[in-house]
Fold each of these.
Amino acid sequence: MAGPVIALRDLVFRWPGQTGPCLDIAALRVEAGEQVFVHGPSGSGKSTLLNLLAGVLVPDGGELRALDVDLPRLSAAARDRFRVDHVGLIFQQFNLIPYLSVLDNVLLPCRFSPRRRQRASADGGDARAAAAALLTHLDLAESLWQRPATALSVGQQQRVAAARALIGRPEIVIADEPTSALDAARQAAFLDLLRRECAAADAALLFVSHDQRLAGVFPRQLAMGEINRATGAAS
Amino acid sequence: MSHLLPLALRSAWNRRHTLGLTLLAIVLAVTLLLGIERVRQDARAGFAHSVSGTDLVVGARASPIQLILYAVFRIGETTHDMSWEAARMLAERPEVAWTIPLALGDSHLGYPVVGTSADYFVHFRHGDRQPLRFAGGRPFEALFEAVLGAEVAQRLGYRLGDRITLTHGGGGFTGAEHDDKPFTVVGVLARTGTPVDRSVHISLQAMEAIHLDWQGGAPIPGFSIPAELVGKFDLTPKSVTAVLVGLHDRAAVFALQRELDGYRAEPLMAVLPGVALSQLWDLLAVAERALLAMSTLVVAVGLAGMVAVVLAGLGERRRELAILRSVGARPRDLFALLALEGFAVTLLGALLGLLLVTVLAAGLGPWLQASYGIAPSHAWPTAQEWQWLGWVLAVGTLASLLPGYRAYRLSLADGLTPRI
């Protein structure tokens, strides 16, 4: 991928019913394979930015291009398709569907996206093999794979979520406070694994957190307070 | 859509306990609805099958429904008798092919006793013009001989050759036994699924004989005629309750009916069984509709319960919906997921209800027939029942759109970060 995976210009977003914008970003570029730490207190517009990048929300003005695609111009269904095809998401907690096994949780994007399924198959021979490889890389023993997702510890669940975000090598991985439910030792270990696997998959990583201690390992850091010109923003 | 189905199944299985209870409510509601509909149909069919091939029922002038109920179904109030002369007159008319005189009033352990002639066993038809068959024995010939309906014989354990005592009136009064003139069982009829099964048949002459020494519903005090002497009396019946009439040509039925209604010697009434039955159904229609309304309400309650359960579960499933959204599910996929679940539960409930009603009909059929004379006739659902099931399914599916729409709204409002 030659160009930037994410390119914003004069991006404005306001929640319906609010007068002022909650997000107003002059410019932001994320290159392919780049790993960026985005920090800011709650209420600084992190979640809104995340929802915009994932194509769930549509900006009120400005330019939002991902992988050279003009996201706001796409239909809602096309944005949903774009998300599953090109974006892997990891949340703070409760990432997994309780009634699915670990392996089936990892395979969820392949269920919705033929592109992810194809790319996963190209990686591992078939999608299950790719999922197995990712789980192994993320230190999840094979004995856990068929267990229900809820039977795992929080740390294990976050690693399963990472495997799901990475399967089929999406170009963008967005992690929203993925380590805040983990203790300090596990935070570092998880961060290492995640950065290593994103690099291996050649995926750009947007790591959103309010915890500045994690910032050190990232080559690039962004403060929401600095890039977001709007005041009185809601998260 | 195909990628959603396995997810919907796994999700439903995960909530199988609450969904199972919801399903049970729908199954029972559908069973009730279909059961009431079946009993209604079968009761009608049972009544319609009880008189077949009879063109007119003639009796003393009263309410046509009352005459039919009493003469054919042996339920309801006693009607006035008509004279034996009128019955003879009927039998001798040229357009009349056969007559079956019926004299009712006595009973045996709660089962009605029917005084009739041997023509009963020749001309009476039930169901689809089927004649009576003997499971054992023969028609009565000698005076104190009785032919039992299938159920009387089975329930009371009578065999050929057993001796039985008749009771004056419907029973319940002591000292009203005709115990001085016992009858011998000489025949048992095959099961018909009609009131014939519950009847004890004797000859009109025997009916006359056991009442020789009776007057006004009680034995004449100090006067009794032993059984062996009754042959010395004139046993020609004086009156009968009703006469079933079969014609050579059905086209004559209205002319004969008019003529009998204007009969001068005594007030007679001729009733077309089909017309009287449809009058009876009109009378019962209100009750039927009330029952149907009740069972419809039960179905509505079941479906409302399902919607409530699915809606209530939606709060807990907001995370699940957000996760599905993050891996590419569109809001309309989530709509489909929820609507599909309601549809599937309703469909399963309707089918299991149908199955349960069929199993119950098969299992309880003999008991229903014995106790109420209702024979569950069809194992396969009728067009009407399919229509009911279709309605249940349609309403259930429509109701499921509500949680579907709610999930759709939630997923649009929440995006990837559910506000819980």
Amino acid sequence: MNRVLAWATARRAAGAAGWRGTDALFRGAVGGLGLVGAGVVLHRVDLVLLGAPLLLGTVLALAAPVGAVPVVRAERLPSTVEAGDRGRLAVRVEAGPGVEFMAVRLPVPGAQGIGPVHLVPGAARELRASLRWNAWGEGLDLRPDHLAAGRDALVISGPVVGHEARRTVLPPVEPLRPGPLPPRAAGLVGAHRSPRPGDGTELRAIRPFQPGDRVRRVDWRVSLRAGAAAGELLAPGTLHVRERHAEADADLLLVIDSRVDVSANLSDWSTATARAVRTRGSLDATVRATASLAAAYLRQGDRVGLVDLGRPQLGIGAGVGHRQLARVRHQLVACSRSAGWAPQPVLLPRQVPAGAVVVLLSPFLDDAVADTTIRTARRGHAVVAVDMLPTPLVPDPEAEWGAVVAQVITAEHRARTAALRSNGVLVVTGVDGVAAVLRRVRGRR
Amino acid sequence: MTDGLDVGRGVSAGLLRAVVAVVCAGIVADLALNRASVVVLGAAVLLSVACVFLPASPAPLLLIALAALLITVSGPDPLRPAVLVLVPLVHLLHINCAIGALLPKGARLDPRALWPAARRVAVVQLVVAALAVLAMVIPAGRTPEPVELIALLSIAGLAAVVIVLDRSR
């Protein structure tokens, strides 16, 4: 039985591989010949006139040989692009002169996905299409499925499913003013002023010379003034040196909550979306904010790491530079690809470097995430909670208790943020507020 | 030959279905004007709907056969306006259904793709119009038997040509 099935499948595949006639060929040939034949036999000129266009058209169409099976090849595009980028796609078509129509699936600029099928002239050897990647994320944006047809579409080849081209569109980086971070206790390089003396540029104090001080640090103007006051130049105790602050780096740990992705409309919360991430949802906003924060602080020279509360294995350690920014943005796409509910958010002590500032972005819709945030703050870290819940919440108009549900969710959320504040967590509602809050933290320390 | 083609948004391929709908409406109107019965008109309307939504089905062929049968039995004059109007309508129905059957829902269409087919339709219609004029000029009467034999052999020859061309691709 299996052999028969395999044989039938192979026959069907072989039949579909090359050129084959369509219903139109049958209609043109059988209908045309039938009408003309019936007209001749019955001596009816009207039947001959009705059948003649079908028959003539079929003969004219079949007179042009279609040649070999057409081949469609799409040119390669970069596998990683920036959100908002534009691209130009070229698809090469190798087809015989008898091919009159090509139906090729090509993307449409500004639209998501692989696009509709376009019917284009079969004589075109290169099809060019514009692409624009608006939405960040990972997805399929090109699959040149194609079908070739001869004259009057009497014979066709295909349809053939094209090679899929997947692309990662990195989340956009919006310009953000970074704030100062509390420097780490250790480290000799960085952009932040350390309270310790060191080799930085910022003046810390002018003090009397001590054994071990470098001569180039001597402040001659102060020393001479001190000598003049003492009545003797270079008398003991008159030599003064300029002491500078050390410069230290700082760690910023960005923590995202990919367990929930909600929009302002409560009616959408329980419905699945076609995309992995809701447009203008909390996860979309979180990823954009995280990419912007990472870019701003990495540009400043700080070390930035990433943790996903729902998928701890997807976190990346702290690092610096452009490469780290690329890693963070790629990882954000990976986190959103595997986003989904996890009952327990995970932020282990070993994931948070000593002295690091933790910026935790979440809609704070469950107590577990609030507990995790408070626990991290109690370990001695400066924690900034960025509230990503879209506001104001719109009640479900079709639900009888829609307005009440919205009020309960809002009240619970307010209680959670109040609990965070009372436990020393700094809560801000937008990513723009992070810099100001960090400045306050820095001032306190 | 076109080297490169910029594929834009094009026009909706629903345009082809719309043309099929208009052509089918023309055929149904032609049948109605020839005093077709309600049952036949109902069948023609059903077939028309099938032509619009299922262009790759036998519906177009059945509609063409129905129209041809009805027009033949409805009057003795083979070159009356009802027949002459039906000739291009049948041809347009055939071509539009053939091309429309290639495209899935939501497809787009570059109008330049239709030009070669449109030119061929025009040529074929000119030839058929010349045949009609010839049929008007030739005096009606009994056809000599040798001519009938030649006509039947010509049809057989055309059938052979179609088969050979179809096999030679």
